[in-house]
Fold each of these.
Amino acid sequence: MRKLWKHAVPGSFAVALLLAAFSPVRGQDADQLQLLEGRVDGFSFIGNAGGEFLTIPVGARGVAMGQAFTAVVDDISALWWNPAGLGFLRSPAALFTNVNMPLDAQINFVGVGAPVFGGNGTVGGAITVLSFDKMEVTTIEEPLGNGQQFDTYSTSIQGTYAHNISDRFMAGASVKWAHENIFGVASDAFQFDFGTNYHTTFAGRGIRLAFVVQNLGTNFKSEGSRLQTDGRPPDFPTFPNAGDLPLEFRTQDFRPPTTLKTALAYYLLESESSNFIVNAEFSAPRQLETTYSIGGEWAQTLVPASNGGVATTVAARAGYTYQQDEEDLGDSPNENDVFRGLGFGAGLQFDFGAFGTGFDYAYRDWGRLGGTNNFSVSMLF
């Protein structure tokens, strides 16, 4: 009975936390409650979320599997996918990821993590930067540009902790400070990720179940000197020699891109030299329609560590994410949209004994926007 209670308490707490994240808040008007409980005809949260760069996946391994990676992740990229996955780390690790995105945008991610408390816990941290090339300043009078340019970027800094509650159950949490800046107009918010991973065996093979909430936190509110001006309201009393009054444009708060994920992974093949794992994932983003992902990874050890040389492992991955946000648009202007959501890639890992290193590549199809190339380099110490 004590063992059952040990597993039931963290599991029940995690489910309650996930439900609370998406439950309506008392005291709101009927229209707002209706929006929180379900989608209204003709209404969408698309375009109404701030900090959407936080939803861009990092780590070529997970992207190659069609983003069906939440239950599988057991490396340093868990900093983004599922903080509980950090609990699988047995030595310090670091990861660098570069993603070349459409419209000359780039994502760069650096993350580190290390076991603590005798391996019962893991701490980690990461920095994410989304950058763009300089853009032309356009106005109503000069819609093609007035010769000036401006910068825009988004960044986040996070800290993560994962704990092995038992030999089969892990839980983790991340806190993130997110910042966006567009032409001097900035917005800041704090976000939290919560994740769990339960792993056991079924029919003699490994199985993993994960629940994750990403980007649950404060709203994004725009502020900056470019929102400030001088003027005088038409109905404001005029006094002799009175000048203009300092004014500031009022902006609307943007909700964070909160996402709920449930994922299941199963090892179809599990041996000392070969592994083949398949994954399925359900994702409910606040700002998009529900998505469904499937993926798989085959890994083969080419040179075992017992041979005294450099242990070498190669992996092949593929997956697909089904997105509903454009399914009712009719004829698409780009026939390649049928491949939107497809991902595939490969990885190569070397173990030198004192340290290890891995190189991963993934291609992700964005439909009419083209595709992205994802590169990751990881280190184990």
Amino acid sequence: MAVANYMNKVGQAARASSRDLARADTRLKNAALERIAEAVLECKTAILAANKADMDRERESRLDSALLDRLEITEARFADMIDGVRQVAGLADPIGEIYELIYRPSGIQLGKMRVPLGVVGIIYESRPNVTLDAASLCLKSGNACILRGGKEAIESNQAISSAIKVGLKRSGMSESCVQVIETTDREVVGKMITMPQYVDVIVPRGGRGLIERISGEARVPVIKHLDGNCHVYIDSDCDLEMALSIALNAKTHRYGVCNAMETLLVADSVAKNALPKLAKLYAEAGVELRGCSATRKIISAKEAVEADWSTEYLGPILAIRIVEDVAEAIDHINTYGSGHTESIVTNDYSRARQFLREVDSSSVMVNASTRFADGFEYGLGAEIGISTDKFHARGPVGLEGLTSQKWIVLGDGQIRS
């Protein structure tokens, strides 16, 4: 009963704040974002100390290395968090935008206006940076938000939450615009996803178990991000040095992230030349290779089993498959991929166009690392998550993904005859 009462109070406050936020103008929202950025900077020492406490505790409890990587706030990541808030403040405000305005034969003008979703509930694991990213994006898009982080990041999230409250108070906005859940009680999640009277959409960010539970039990719409089983395909007609650089970066830049490459596809005609060079680079980086039978005839690798083609490793493991051509690469990706991010390395314009057209993923790239599939890199300031759904929002969810629309009609006395 205590959790139910607590969440009802949180929901009521969020709903009330969402109505105030919907009326807030761009100047006020940008001022609030700047005050938040300043407060977070002022609280840097406390935030990093809280994060260290989380890291120390979770190392002792042997948290998975990929989750530990996501949990850590380094100096560089702290700077990126602040940059993300300020980038959001600098973005065009989507709320109130009127578009596709046309005249109808009746003389009325018909168009669409972009509006906030209302209250956004976000459930996430590890990444404390999501607390600040989500708060800034929801604020700018006129949405109140309820943020429920994982127990492994409780100290970090509460420290960031305290700074956000300071920034909101300084700007004259209600602290209830951004509410970070203060308890790690798992019952909170069940309540949060079943109160449509207070929450308009849920965005889960975490493992498959969390996503599947929320998708199955939620009584409000869900913008979900499932696995990040990303691919790079090295085409027969490619710049080999470029291919080596992209394939190495896509896998080893960071392991515990959803836009890291998990499967490398190589055209048969370049495999004998490319794979030994790649194997050397991966060996130096400590990456375990799992290959198809054709791959294992060229380089040393463990035998890949069927499950490897659909696994998001989030670690130094890479599956490699040799394919005949771009058509077979596309078929493999559409069969085993998670709809996240795929890249082709090629000099052939027609094959690049075919790859862009036929690969069914939220981000499809030509001659670039999959690591660019990110809200910050896409100029969104930050992201709520990367949606692998096809409805409402797809790919990195930034400001526009946190809005809806309503039809507007402008007339000067027209009546229906």
